[in-house]
Amino acid sequence: MAATIKDIARRAGVSTATVSKVLNRKDSVIGDETRQKVLSLARELNYTPNSLARSLVTRKSHVIGIIVPDILNPYFTELVRSCDDAARLRGYTTLVCNSEGIAEIETAHLTSFGGHRVDGILLAASDVVPDTELLDALRIPVVCMDREIGPLAQLVGIVDTDYRSGAYQATRHLIEKGHTRIAFLSGAPHRSNTQIRLSGYKDALSEAGIAFDPDLIRCKEFQHRFGHQATLDLLDHTSFSAICCMNDMLAIGAMVALRERGKRVPEDCAVIGFDNIYLSPLLEHPLSTVDRRIAHSGRVATDALIDFLDDADRTLTAVTITPTVVSRTTT
Amino acid sequence: MAATIKDIARRAGVSTATVSKVLNRKDSVIGDETRQKVLSLARELNYTPNSLARSLVTRKSHVIGIIVPDILNPYFTELVRSCDDAARLRGYTTLVCNSEGIAEIETAHLTSFGGHRVDGILLAASDVVPDTELLDALRIPVVCMDREIGPLAQLVGIVDTDYRSGAYQATRHLIEKGHTRIAFLSGAPHRSNTQIRLSGYKDALSEAGIAFDPDLIRCKEFQHRFGHQATLDLLDHTSFSAICCMNDMLAIGAMVALRERGKRVPEDCAVIGFDNIYLSPLLEHPLSTVDRRIAHSGRVATDALIDFLDDADRTLTAVTITPTVVSRTTT
DNA sequence: CTGAAAGCGCTAACAA
DNA sequence: TTGTTAGCGCTTTCAG
Hints:
Two copies of one chain form a homodimer. The first copy, chain A, folds into three domains: 5-44, no CATH class; 59-161 and 294-322, Response regulator (Rossmann fold), CATH 3.40.50; 163-291, Response regulator (Rossmann fold, 3-Layer(aba) Sandwich). The first copy, chain A, has twelve helices and twelve strands. The longest helix of chain A has 16 residues, at 74-89. In chain A, helix 5 (74-89) links the parallel strand 1 and strand 2 (93-98). By secondary structure, chain A is of the alpha/beta class.
C-alpha cells in the first residue's frame, strides 16, 4: 500500500495537519526541524499524495475535460496535443474524449466529466449541437475551441476561426490562379460550420463575377472518405478545374480520387485544403491550404480556461483567429 | 452545487446507505417503493455520483493510464484511440500522457498516475528505458504495448510485435523486386527496437547472398524529419535503389527527400515503411509497408489489462503479433 | 508553532 | 428491508 500522510505523521511524531501543511508549502509557520523531518520521511516512504482525497476536500481536481469528435483526425490530434501541453504547463491534467460527432456520446462524456469533477471543459463541438442545458446544469466552465455554440451561462471563452475569411481567401486564391469552375467540399450542410464557409466561397465568386453553381457543391462530412467519394461523383457529373476543400483530410481524399482517374494535380485540377495540419507539407504534392494556427488556438483556449479557473481573469475571452493561405504545390 | 447522496436520502426519508445500495444496483434487498422513490429523486435532482469519493473508498478509480512517446505520431494516435475504445467498452476511462521519448518525463507521468490511483497502466515505452524500480514501487499492473521491458513484478501483459520478422519480410520483399543496395532507416541505434529490426534486415540480406554494408544504415529517431535528413545524406554519400524504413513516418520523410532530388518512386528508388498507419494508403503513392495491426494490438493490450483488473484472468498475457507486408505502389 | 476535530461524498460491514 | 457506524486520505478552521 502506498504511504499516506498518516504514516508520515506517526513516524515523525507530529499530527497529520502538520504534515499536510509542510507538504503543501503552507509551511511558513512550521518549525524548521519539523519540516525537515517530514520532508525526509516523505521521500523515504516514497510518498505521493492521493489526489482523489485531495480533490474531494479542496473541490478542485486540476483536471480539464476535452471533447473532440475524433482524435484520429490530425487536426484534432494537434489541437488536443497543444491543449494538453498548455494544461500541464499550468499544473492541470487532461481527460480526452471522442464524441464521434454524435450528440448522445458527447452528452455521455459531459456527464462523466461531471462525475469526475473536472474543473473545466474544452469543447470542440464541430458538427454536433451540444446539449446546452446539460452544460449549464453541470456548472463547469467551458471554452469552445472551434466555433461558437448557443447561449451558455458557463461559457468563459470562445476561440473562433474566421471561416468566412478562410474560405473566401482560399477561393480567391484559386480564382487568381485562373480557375472559374471551382468545386466546394465541406461537412454537414446545415451546420454553421459549413454555411459560413460557403458564404465566403460565394463572396469570392461573386466578387469575381463568377456565377454560383450548386452542382459544384458537395457537403456531408469532414472525412477523407467523403473527399474521395465526392470528387469521384463530381468527376462523373460536372466539370471543374479546382477543388476548394474545407479541411485537409477532404483534400487528401480528393487527391486520391484525382489520381485514380489519372488527373494530375495541379495541372488538370488544383486542390486547396483548410487547417494546415502538420501532414500537409509532407505529402508528395505538398498541399496548398488555409493555415488556422491549430496549436496556437489550442494554447489560447486552454490558457483562457485556466486563467478563469485560477481566478486570474474572470471575464469572457473571445479570440478570433484569422487564417491565411499557404500556397504550396497543389494550386 | 451538484446533488449528493445525502440530498437524496433526506428527501426520500431514508439513509444514505440505502440510497447507495439502490444506485449501485445492489438493490436485490431493497423494497420496491423505496427503490422507485430514490431513483426518481436521483433523476429529478440530476444526480451524478462523485467518482472521486467513490474511488477513494472502493480503491478503484476505473481509470487506466496510458503513456506513449507522442500522440502526434499517427501510429500512437491509432494505438491510443483503440485502447480508449476498448477501455470505455468495459467501463474504464483513459488518461493519456506523452513522454516525448524522455525518461524523466515518463517518470513524472508514472508518478502522477500513482497519485491519481489509476488502476492499471498501458505503456508504449518505445525508445525510452522505463524506470522499472518506480514501476515496481507503484504496484500498479502494467501492460507493455510495443515491446518487452526489463523484469517487472507488476507486469501482467506484453503485446509484442515480431519486429525481426517484419524487417525480414520488408527486406525480402525489396530483394524480390530486384534490389540489392537497400538502405535501412530506424530509431535510436542502441535500442532493442532497432537492433532486432536490424537483425531481420541482415538475415534477409545474407539469405540472398547480399553483403551487409554499414554505409547504408541510418539510425537515430522515428520521426519524419530524420527520414528526410537521412535520405538526403544517403543520397550524397552512397548509392542505393531502395529504402527500408522502420516506420511509416520515416518513409514519408524519405519520399519527400527523394522528390526534392527529382527521384521517382518506385522507379528510381523503392520505399517500404513499417506500421501501416491509416495514412499510408492515402498518400499520393500509397505506401508499401508492414502491417502490424495497430488497432488490434491496442485492443488486445487493453483487454489483457482489464481482464487482470477485473479478476477474470490473473495470468500474464503474452501476445506476439506477426506483421505482414502490404504491397502498394512504392515498391 | 502544532494539534484536535470535523468533514468532503461515498461505501461497507454489522446491527436492528 | 433499512439504518448506524466507521472510515477512505486529505485539508482546514480553530484552539492551544
